[in-house]
Amino acid sequence: MITKDELINTTLDAIIDTHETYLEWSGNEWLWNAPEYLLTVKIAEKIANIDKNKFVTLEDNVEKTLHSSNAKGTGRVPSKIEQMEDLT
């Protein structure tokens, strides 16, 4: 299992790495100008490279998230939402 200190240090290393990468890619723009997802992916990558048991995932399935958080309502889906589903 990953310790709290390992997680913190790995995350900080990922932030530094992401900043250096974005400086290079963007011609010296600072990290706060980068898309948030770049930092998310770099942190996940660094955590995945820790040689211990872990499970790393990004943006889990929406249906699963709603279910596990008990955020799904009961009853019929409103017709306007059903119409939106038909558009996809």
How does this structure look, described?
There is one protein chain. The chain has 88 residues and is mainly alpha-helical. Helices cover 59% and strands 0% of the residues. The protein has four helices and no strands. The protein has helices spanning 4-26, 36-48, 62-68, 79-87. The chain is flat and about 50 Å long.
Q: What class do helices, strands and sheet pairing give?
A: mainly alpha
Query: Describe the biggest sheet?
Result: none
Shape: flat
Strand content: under 5%
Mean pLDDT value: 88
Q: How widely separated are the two ends?
A: 41 Å
- Identify low-pLDDT runs: none
User: Roughly how many Å is the radius of gyration?
Assistant: 19 Å
The share of residues in helices is: 55-70%
Query: Care to count the β-strands?
Result: 0
> Helical element count?
4
* Topology as a string of helices (H) and strands (E): HHHH
Short structural description:
By secondary structure, this protein is mainly alpha-helical.
Would you spell out the secondary-structure blueprint of this structure?
Blueprint: H1 4-26, H2 36-48, H3 62-68, H4 79-87
Helix pairs in contact: 1-2
Provide key terms for this protein.
88 residues; 4 helices
